Write a sequence for this structure.
């Protein structure tokens, strides 16, 4: 972490060291660890839920859905037929340009485990899974160690700290597939199946893993839970600069001087993140645009630099805050090549279930490839535009992958249309050398 | 009923459905692929898109959102647009996307002309191609002799695996790979294992899975002549649509009957009619000469011979449970009831009669297949329905899902939410208990399986009945109590049994369970399988006291009869060879009417070639007591005639009084109904030949039927007059009206814009409901109020005997039935006859898998298969297979290693070339 | 047939059974089992797949459907070290294409290929979640960050391995 940060309340990264070495149980507890768990166990599950609702914590997995509200759909007590209830941590983090959950898990695995125990207690779930992407070997190992340490300490297992509450926790390492990040596909995958997303309704809250009530939350979301329970909703609200509460892990990658990831108050302005924390553009590069929160968000441009990075503000500007990890498009990188790279990713990662995504994305990628390599025709612009309308709306496809995939294309057509036209008119990529094509 | 608005028009629709179903039911066209009326919705293809508006205001403003019709419940006041630009453009874009990788091979594709993708492409108006990329290509797999695989045509609708795995319980076909590389195939090439694989041909909306037999002898749908028919493969009575061209039966498609087969057939039914084209078919009458060879006759001379023989002799007749009520009735009339044997094997006759009697007496309902699907707890006693009455097994597979539907209802999920319900219920199933003398293909969905000797099956059944009746349980009958609790706790319990394991005690036990349930106030169902397409009709016609073979033989030996007429029945399949030799030898003259050359025709003095089911009309009574009519698909060649035609002509030649009023086929049906109380309902099975549909006949040929003149151009350029059908409301022409007729007279499905079988919904009142013209067939059985058996101590349990094994029949879908086994494709799948033993029993004999065993003293020499599901002391044998004819079910035989036995080489499966998947 | 299928090793079975212990049906550990066998053998052969399927009481087709769905289940042999080179957006901006060309030249293999000495297989991978250190790649379980063309030598040795 950069040492130049002002002194802020940074609950999520307070145990993150400069060398990114992991915090073990002793160090974690020494810094107040598992106090939140004790606080939670001293409260009723209903009270915990109320605190969460009051805190206005919104899901950090990309959609920003209010966590407390999501949890309130889970049947509790007698309303829940006998059987398991599940909490799943979504640690699949495969969205291009996103690298925040890795940091949290590799540097402070106990924080996630504590957050999950508190979340599971709130939901009265008895089994918890961490669904982690295959390539995160180190995090997988550290989390397993943290779970084992918790079991030894009585933080996990039967009758946690004498409260009568039982919870088992498992780490499940995936086998590599972006769609597993979609919560219902994740559930399919956890059942050992092909990771096809599921129709909603029924929502996982009532019928998820093995048909039982299930909550899926992002790593960062869950890392907040015990802090909120311990320190209260007001404290959490007070952390944010705008209506959206708490802190947020923001990241910047691309041609900036100091790419990285920082915990900042929710609503920190884009410019501040890029210019102060990421150190501004590399020498000789100008900013042309940026994807605010991962590869499936719409481009914003220079005119949006002064916006606050929060769900509502970025949403109103025509994009999505997504994961809060920005990808910078500079002036020497070809926007067509940029969206082609993303579209090829999404086409490849389509699960193949529904037509617009399975067949439409490869076609879009093909058209972008043609344009990028100078084989584009003027009517290809219409084709892309049609594809945006065809694939790009939620509801047109079975899940949100494909609409997300169209966001970069749709906004690139809006902001960088002349770049496409220059490719088509000139019969080659004007960025050819610098454009990495 | 909810009222919805579509493009400004209000419609009242059935509650609980989805918009796609409702739309189709209203007669509006909405394209779709992945949805299937029997399989529900998953929302994969996105073809059925419509625009939904929140309210009128948003409708005015055109601010709606795209939703999938198949995934959208119809709720009161919902507002949709099907015809709006946005919905139409979206649907066109879907087809364009599906066509990116679809080859342009319609002219050579077996699906062409009945391709749902073609229909939908035209329907959405997609014409111009914008995509310039390359198409994906896949390698195809060899999937066995019945089904052809052409993966390049796949549009990834997932219907095949949903049908094959989810609906039919197959495991060896799956979606492989992902993205736009998805491949539907097997792990390695090889024969598809499901007994219901053939439905893939109709389920696949393009030409990926096609009928391999048809592909090799191809005709387009529009050039097929077809007629409503009934499957003769077993006693279920599935409705079929056979298609013909050039005098050859080309294929069999499903004919929808909401109460019977619904949308699906089994592979015996679909592929088992190929015997109609067999080289063994008899074309001319034959008169045996001194030297044992036959002289061909024309039908006039043959009739003279028949008449002369009948005049000279005292007649006896053997009828057939595999042919029509009418033909049997005429033969019975000709020879007199006392001299007419129904044609069952001696051991089988009491079993079939018992099956009929139990159903007539039991207060339990005899269920149709749709009712079987609705059962929420099932006990199968002794019957391997997958192999004896296959379509019932497919229905039972649906019945175990009722638990899932109940769970779904608790969550407010509609039954068409297919994927959601499967995810919700996972492996939860309604209870299905199977007891059989071995394993059965339904075991995978059973809550419990008991592999017992038939005697013990009967004991278990009686114990279940006793337990339901509340009689004290004997120790060690925990299983009976468990089953009893499951059945008694159900709303619609079902007991299934039948003649399959050759034990009347087992069927009696099944009836006892059903009766006990009725007594306990449950709406119980009792389904008893019988072997052949008209077994039950034959039992109804002949009554319980009809003479069997032994009785006829005695009469012949006593000189009371001397001339035997055998109707469509290969007697050598119904008793050991010596026994049948003796029976036939007792008669002076043997006259055989049959379709194919077989051991019985070979010992006849006069042979008359009989038309097959596909060339003849007839009424068959299915195992549920449903009388159904089949109609000729094509006229037989000149000298081959339906058996009823031969017999009626003979009666007329003999100037028999009974024949005086018989002019048409319908007259025979009516005469039979008048004479036999149990069959009084049969005329109602279908309208008679006077029926006209809006004044005209119903065409067997489509209005696009082509090349009729060319078919005979090598003989004469003059097109002969089309054959006239004097016997039914159907015509051998293209002229007439195939719409809005009674359900029993539907020769093919087609509707403007809907060339594929998906056009069926145009003939249904509502999607998945009965045909607009009513459900084909008429039920002859009513629940009885018969004796309520309770607390029977039951039969003696089975006791193994040293050195003696009890033979238990092992039925096979391919091989146990006579005619289907002769059909191309299926003949490759019939295994040589076998005997099965548990490994301990095999060990005691010192034999291993693949060795030969001699059964009895030269009764049979069969290959041994080790199967630990066979109860100790029993030996399973391949029922109905060549080489096993001499084996009597439930007989005790000695077993020993067969001397000089040649072990079979491992079989190598054929291949189209190319292998593996992409 | 039965005896042709190689039995899974005791070690593999032990690990698979440990997974089975906490799921409702054995088939639920399909992915874990494939990964376990792959960890021991480098890839999943037809024979391994059949053996796993039998152990999990599922059909080979069903398991094949799972195996071929996931990017990191290898149904063809790979080298001793699998190089996963990130080709997603941030690494692309930072020149992963050129890096790949360089690796290919150095090792003499294209994407998807294995060196003749069987030491390396080069595969593309989607965003490795280390975009601030782009370009990155993973060799075995080790992540290499901020790789420069020069830095490749440190990984593979100057002679390319
Ligand atoms: C294609 C796709 C990929 C996704 N990938 C992830 C992911 O890697 N991590 C994640 O937390 N959420 C991901 N999501 C969002 C999840 O579906 C889900 O909304 C999220 O895990 C909920 O957590 P939250 O409420 O804590 O944000 C993805 C969504 C889609 C449509
Ligand atoms: S949009 Fe459709 S094909 Fe794409 S990932 Fe989602 S479900 Fe699969
Ligand atoms: S039929 Fe509705 S999505 Fe396929």
């Amino acid at each position: 972490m950069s040492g130049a940060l002002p002194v802020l309340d940074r609950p999520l990264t307070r145990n993150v060291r400069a060398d990114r070495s992991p915090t073990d149980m002793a160090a974690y507890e020494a810094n107040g660890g598992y106090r939140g768990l004790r606080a939670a166990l001293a409260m009723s599950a209903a009270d915990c839920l109320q605190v969460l609702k009051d805190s206005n914590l919104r899901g950090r997995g990309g959609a920003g859905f209010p966590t407390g509200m999501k949890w309130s759909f889970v049947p509790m007590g007698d309303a829940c037929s006998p059987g398991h209830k599940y909490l799943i941590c979504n640690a699949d983090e495969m969205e291009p340009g996103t690298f925040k959950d890795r940091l949290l898990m590799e540097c402070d695995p106990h924080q996630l485990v504590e957050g999950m125990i508190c979340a599971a207690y709130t939901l009265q779930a008895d089994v918890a899974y961490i669904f982690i992407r295959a390539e995160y070997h180190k995090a997988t190992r550290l989390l397993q160690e943290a779970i084992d340490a918790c079991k030894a300490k009585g933080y996990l297992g039967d009758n946690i700290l004498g409260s009568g509450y039982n919870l088992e926790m498992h780490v499940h390492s995936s086998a590599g597939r972006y769609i597993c990040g979609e919560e219902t596909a994740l559930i399919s995958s956890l059942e050992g199946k092909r990771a096809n997303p599921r129709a909603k309704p029924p929502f996982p809250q009532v019928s998820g893993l093995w048909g039982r009530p299930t909550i899926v939350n992002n790593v960062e979301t869950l890392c907040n839970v015990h802090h909120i329970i311990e320190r209260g909703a007001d404290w959490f609200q007070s952390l944010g600069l705008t209506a959206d509460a708490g802190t947020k892990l923001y990241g910047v990658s691309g041609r900036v001087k100091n790419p990285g990831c920082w915990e900042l108050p929710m609503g920190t302005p884009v410019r501040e993140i890029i210019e102060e924390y990421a150190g501004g553009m590399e020498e000789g590069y100008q900013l042309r645009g940026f994807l605010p929160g991962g590869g499936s968000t719409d481009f914003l441009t220079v005119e949006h630099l002064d916006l606050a990075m929060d769900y509502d503000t970025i949403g109103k500007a025509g994009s999505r805050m997504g994961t809060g990890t920005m990808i910078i498009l500079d002036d020497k990188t070809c926007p067509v090549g940029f969206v082609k790279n993303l579209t090829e990713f999404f086409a490849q990662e389509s699960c193949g279930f529904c037509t617009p995504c399975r067949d439409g994305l490869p076609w879009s990628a093909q058209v972008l490839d043609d344009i990028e390599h100078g084989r584009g025709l003027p009517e290809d612009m219409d084709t892309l535009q049609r594809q945006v309308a065809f694939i790009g709306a939620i509801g047109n496809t079975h899940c949100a992958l494909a609409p997300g995939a169209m966001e970069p294309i749709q906004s690139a057509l809006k902001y960088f249309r002349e770049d496409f036209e220059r490719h088509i008119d000139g019969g080659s990529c004007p960025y050819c050398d610098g454009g990495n094509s | 009923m909810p009222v919805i608005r579509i493009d400004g028009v209000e419609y009242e629709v059935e509650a609980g459905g989805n918009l796609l179903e409702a739309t189709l039911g209203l007669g509006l066209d909405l394209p779709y692929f992945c949805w299937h009326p029997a399989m529900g919705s998953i929302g994969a293809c996105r073809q059925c898109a419509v625009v939904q508006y929140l309210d009128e205001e948003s409708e005015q403003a055109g601010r709606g959102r795209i939703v999938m019709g198949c995934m959208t419940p119809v709720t009161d006041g919902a507002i949709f647009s099907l015809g709006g630009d946005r919905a139409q453009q979206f649907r066109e874009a879907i087809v364009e996307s599906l066509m990116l990788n679809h080859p342009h091979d319609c002219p050579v594709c077996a699906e062409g002309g009945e391709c749902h993708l073609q229909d939908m492409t035209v329907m959405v108006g997609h014409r111009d191609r914008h995509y310039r990329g390359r198409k994906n290509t896949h390698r195809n797999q060899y999937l066995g002799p019945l089904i052809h695989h052409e993966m390049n045509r796949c549009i990834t609708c997932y219907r095949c695996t949903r049908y094959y795995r989810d609906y039919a319980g197959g495991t060896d076909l799956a979606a492989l790979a992902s993205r736009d590389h998805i491949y539907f195939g097997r792990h390695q090439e090889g024969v598809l294992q499901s007994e219901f694989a053939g439905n893939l041909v109709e389920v696949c909306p393009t030409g990926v899975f096609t009928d391999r037999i048809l592909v090799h002898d191809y005709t387009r749908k529009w050039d097929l002549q077809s007629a409503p028919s009934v499957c003769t493969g077993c006693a279920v009575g599935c409705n079929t649509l056979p298609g013909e061209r050039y005098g050859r039966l080309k294929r069999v498609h499903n004919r929808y009957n909401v109460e019977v087969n619904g949308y699906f057939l089994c592979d015996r039914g679909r592929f088992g009619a190929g015997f109609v084209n067999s080289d063994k078919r008899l074309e001319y009458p034959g008169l045996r000469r001194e030297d044992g060879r036959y002289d061909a006759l024309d039908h006039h001379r043959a009739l003279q011979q028949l008449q002369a023989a009948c005049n000279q002799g005292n007649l006896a007749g053997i009828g057939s449970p595999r042919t029509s009520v009418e033909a049997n009735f005429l033969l019975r009339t000709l020879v007199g009831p006392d001299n007419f044997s129904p044609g069952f094997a001696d051991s089988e006759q009491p079993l079939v009669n018992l099956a009929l009697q139990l159903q007539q007496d039991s207060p339990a309902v005899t269920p149709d297949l749709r009712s079987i699907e609705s059962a929420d707890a099932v006990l199968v006693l002794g019957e391997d329905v997958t192999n004896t009455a296959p379509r019932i097994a497919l229905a039972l597979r649906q019945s175990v899902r009722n638990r899932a539907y109940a769970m779904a209802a608790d969550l407010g999920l509609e039954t068409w939410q297919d994927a959601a319900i499967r995810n919700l219920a996972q492996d939860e199933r309604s209870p299905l208990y199977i007891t059989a003398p071995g394993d059965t293909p339904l075991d995978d969905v059973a809550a419990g399986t008991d592999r017992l000797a038939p005697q013990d099956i009967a004991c278990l059944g009686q114990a279940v009945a006793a337990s339901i009746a509340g009689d004290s349980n004997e120790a060690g009958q925990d299983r009976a109590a468990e089953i009893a609790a499951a059945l008694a706790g159900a709303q619609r319990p079902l007991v299934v049994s039948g003649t399959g394991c050759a034990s009347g005690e087992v069927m009696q036990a099944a009836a006892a369970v059903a009766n006990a349930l009725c007594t306990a106030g449950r709406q119980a169902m009792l389904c008893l399988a019988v072997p052949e397409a008209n077994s039950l009709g034959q039992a109804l016609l002949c009554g319980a006291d009809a003479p069997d073979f032994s009785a006829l033989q005695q009469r012949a030996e006593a000189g009371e009869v001397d001339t035997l007429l055998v109707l469509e029945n290969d007697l050598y399949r119904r008793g050991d060879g010596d026994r049948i030799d003796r029976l036939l030898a007792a008669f002076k003259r043997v006259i055989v009417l049959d379709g194919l050359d077989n051991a019985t025709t070979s010992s006849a003095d006069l042979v008359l070639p009989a038309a097959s089911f596909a060339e003849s009309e007839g009424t068959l009574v299915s195992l549920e007591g449903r009388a159904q009519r089949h109609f000729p698909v094509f006229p037989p060649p000149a000298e081959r005639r339906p058996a009823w035609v031969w017999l009626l002509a003979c009666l007329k030649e003999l100037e028999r009084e009974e024949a005086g009023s018989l002019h048409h086929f319908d007259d025979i049906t009516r005469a039979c109904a008048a004479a036999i109380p149990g069959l009084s309902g049969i005329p109602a099975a279908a309208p008679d030949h006077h029926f006209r549909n809006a004044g005209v006949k119903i065409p067997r040929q489509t209005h696009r039927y082509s090349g009729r003149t060319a078919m005979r151009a090598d003989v004469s350029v003059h097109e002969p007059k089309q054959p006239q059908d004097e016997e039914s409301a159907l015509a051998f022409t293209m002229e007439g009206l195939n719409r809005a007729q009674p359900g029993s007279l539907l020769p093919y499905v087609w509707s403007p814009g809907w060339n594929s079988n998906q056009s069926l919904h145009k003939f249904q009142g509502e999607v998945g409901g009965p045909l607009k013209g009513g459900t084909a067939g008429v039920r002859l059985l009513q629940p009885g109020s018969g004796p309520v058996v309770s607390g029977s101590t039951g039969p003696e349990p089975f006791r193994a005997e040293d050195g003696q094994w009890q033979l238990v029949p092992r039925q096979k879908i391919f091989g146990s039935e006579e005619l289907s086994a002769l059909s191309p494709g299926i003949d490759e799948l019939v295994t040589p006859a076998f005997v099965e033993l548990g490994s301990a029993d095999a060990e005691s004999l010192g034999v291993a898998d693949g060795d030969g065993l001699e059964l009895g003293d030269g009764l049979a020499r069969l290959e041994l298969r080790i199967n630990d599901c066979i109860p100790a002391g029993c030996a399973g044998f391949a029922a109905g297979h060549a080489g096993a004819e001499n084996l009597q079910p439930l007989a005790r035989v000695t077993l020993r290693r067969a001397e000089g036995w040649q072990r079979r080489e491992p079989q190598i499966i054929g291949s189209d070339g190319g292998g593996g998947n992409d | 047939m039965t005896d042709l299928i190689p039995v899974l090793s005791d070690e593999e079975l032990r690990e698979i059974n440990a997974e089975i212990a906490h799921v409702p049906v054995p088939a639920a550990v399909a992915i874990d089992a494939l990964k376990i066998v792959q960890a021991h053998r480098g890839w999943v052969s037809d024979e391994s797949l059949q053996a796993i399927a039998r152990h999990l009481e599922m059909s080979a087709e069903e398991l094949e459907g799972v195996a071929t769905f996931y990017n990191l289940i290898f149904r063809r042999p790979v080298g001793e070290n699998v190089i996963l080179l990130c080709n997603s957006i941030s690494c692309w901006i930072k020149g992963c294409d050129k890096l790949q060309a360089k690796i290919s030249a150095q090792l003499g293999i294209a994407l998807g290929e294995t060196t003749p000495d069987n030491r390396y297989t080069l595969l593309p991978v989607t965003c490795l979640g280390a975009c601030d250190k782009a370009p990155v790649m993973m060799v075995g379980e080790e992540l290499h960050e901020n790789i420069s063309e020069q830095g490749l030598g440190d990984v593979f040795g100057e002679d390319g391995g």
Q: What stands out?
A: Residues 89 and 127 of chain C are 7 Å apart (CA to CA). Residues A 59-63, 65, 67, 90, 92-95, 179, 181-183, 216-218, 221, 399-401, 404 surround flavin mononucleotide (ligand 1) (CB under 6 Å).
